[in-house]
Design brief:
Layout (H helix, E strand, L loop, with lengths): L1 E3 L3 E4 L3 H11 L16 E2 L3 H9 L3 E2 L2 H9 L2 H10 L11
Length: 94
């Protein structure tokens, strides 16, 4: 599923799904992906980009719900595994 908070675009399923949506349906370039560790996303930089994403089928959610969806993505879960110490606590980088 493709999710947006009106500013960012993510996939709850896979990076391939996100690329397919952004490139094929919105005309974005694959290089526009923000490869933030655990949080890959595209930015919707204009009101027109947001409208096009919604018309193409992205689900609009509020910021809290967006974060919940983000935390369920495979990329976030993989990143989180590497951020935990032996006690299961998330390590914070200085």
């Amino acid at each position: 599923m493709i999710i947006t908070d009106g500013v960012h675009l993510i996939s709850t399923t896979s990076l391939d799904e996100l690329h397919a949506f952004a490139v094929q349906k919105l005309g974005f370039k694959k290089t526009w992906l923000h490869e933030t560790p655990g949080r890959p996303h595209y930015d919707l930089t204009t009101p027109n980009a947001k409208k096009r994403a919604l018309r193409a089928g992205a689900k609009l959610v509020d910021k809290r719900e967006f974060v919940r969806y983000l935390q369920q993505t495979p990329e976030y879960q993989e990143w989180l595994k590497h951020k935990k110490n032996k006690k299961g606590e998330v390590k914070i980088d200085d």
